[in-house]
Amino acid sequence: MNSKPLRPCNKPGCPNLTRSGYCEQHKETKSENNRYYDKYQRNKKHDRFYHSASWIKCRDYIKIRDNGLCQHCKTEK
Q1: Largest alpha-carbon pair distance within the chain?
Q2: Please, are residues 50 and 44 in contact by the beta-carbon 8 Å criterion?
Q3: Is residue 49 within 8 Å of 55, Cβ to Cβ?
Q4: pTM to 2 decimals?
Q5: Distance CA 46, CA 40 (A)
Q6: N-term to C-term CA, the chain
Q7: What does the pLDDT average to over 12-18?
Q8: N or C: which end of the chain has fewer CB within 10 A?
């Protein structure tokens, strides 16, 4: 049975090789990764808006229109 080849860990600067995304040293559960973000209470109304189909469609349109540049970068260009 062929196994995946070893590749560098996804953590920037980590030289360890692994067959999955992260090496054992940097492998953490999703809850540990989101520990800082989840520390604060978020407004549910805003959360629903930013995950709505209409916002995602509008955001994607603007990214295409502006070639992926933010408003600040566009003014410098």
Answers
A1: 55
A2: no
A3: yes
A4: 0.45
A5: 14
A6: 52
A7: 89
A8: N
Tokens of 42: 């978020």
Distance CA 13, CA 22 (A): 12
Backbone φ and ψ of 51, nearest 5°: -105, 5
What span, in angstroms and rounded, lies between the C-alpha atoms of 20 and 9? Answer: 8
Q: Whose structure tokens read 């408003």?
A: 71
CB 22 within 8 A of CB 9: yes
Q: What is the pLDDT of residues 22-44, one digit of tens each?
A: 888 888 765 676 777 778 877 88
Q: For residue 16, what is the DSSP state?
A: -
- For 47, what's the count of Cα atoms within 13 Å in the CB-facing half-sphere? 5
